[in-house]
C-alpha cells in the first residue's frame, strides 16, 4: 500500500491534467486512505480507471502501529469505504502494487481479481553479485553489445517520442505520445527519470529505454528499438544499465509486468529477478457487460467475413490464388 511515483500529484498532473480525481477516507479526523483515478464515458457508460501508461495505482492506506488483527480490520474497512465511493460507476478497473496482497475487500465488494506478474530485482547487493545473477547467455549477449554500442543519455523527451513513433512502423500507439514530454519534464525536475540510448560508432540509435523511479524502485517504463538495425543485445544492455542505475541508488529494479507471454518471460527471468504479483481488479455492472458483449458481435462478424474471403481465394487444389488490381 506504499505511495509510489504513480501516486504522486505531479505524475497525475502530467498524464491527466485537470481530470484526475480522488476519494478519501478519514478516521478520527485524519485521512487514512485515498484512491486516485480518472474517469471517462464509453457508449453512455461511466468508467473509473487509472491514467494512461500508469503501471499501478489503487488505494493507499496509512495506518498507525497496533496489533496485526486490528490493523487488518481497519485496512479492510478503509478500502471498503473507498470502493463504495466509486460504486456508481458502470465499470471500475485498476492494477494494485506488488505490496498490496490483501484483496479481500475487493472480493467482498464484487470485484474480479486476476494475477498480473512482474519481476523484481533487489539491487542493493554488490554489482559483481548482480552480474553473476544474470543467465550466462544474457551476459554474453550484453558483452557482445558492449563491443559495438555505447550508452548515452537522452535529454530530450521530444527526441524519444519521435524515435518511439518512428519504430511503431505505422501502428497506433496505445497511449497519447504527446503526454510523454510533460511526464519527462516533471520527473526530470525531481531527478526521478533518465532516458538511455544504445548508439553505435556511426551515431545510429539501436534502442532507447525510459526509466522512472521513486524511493524504492527503478521502473522499466518504456522502451523502443529500431528493428532495421538493432543489435540483438541492445535492449539487454540498456536493461543492465537500468539495473546499475538502481544499484547506484540502493533501490530495487521493477521490470514492470508484461510477462504474460512465454518469450517475454524467458527474456526477463534471465536477469535474475524474483517473481512478484500485482493484481488487476475490476467490477462491471450488468449493463456494461452487456454493452461490451454487443460490441464484440461486429468484430466477430468481421473476423468471419475475413476468414470467408480468405477461403474463397483458395482453389480446389488448396492453392492460394493471386489477386491483381483491376485496370
Which features characterize this protein?
globular; 327 residues; single chain; disordered C terminus; alpha+beta; twelve-stranded mixed β-sheet; 28% strand
Question: What would you say about this model in short?
Answer:
The chain is built from 10 helices and 12 strands. The chain has 327 residues and is an alpha+beta fold.
What does this structure look like?
The structure is a single chain. The chain is of the alpha+beta class. 36% of the residues lie in helices and 28% in strands. The protein is built from ten helices and twelve strands. It has helices at residues 9-15, 68-84, 104-108, 127-132, 136-148, 157-166, 180-189, 234-249, 262-269, 286-312, and strands at 20-27, 30-42, 45-49, 59-61, 91-96, 112-122, 150-154, 193-199, 205-213, 217-225, 252-254, 274-284. Strands 1, 2, 3, 4, 5, 6, 7, 8, 9, 10, 11 and 12 form a twelve-stranded mixed sheet that branches. Strand 10, helix 8 (234-249) and strand 11 (252-254) form a beta-alpha-beta unit. Helix 1 (9-15) packs antiparallel against helix 7 and helix 5 packs across helix 8 (234-249). The N and C termini lie far apart (65 Å).
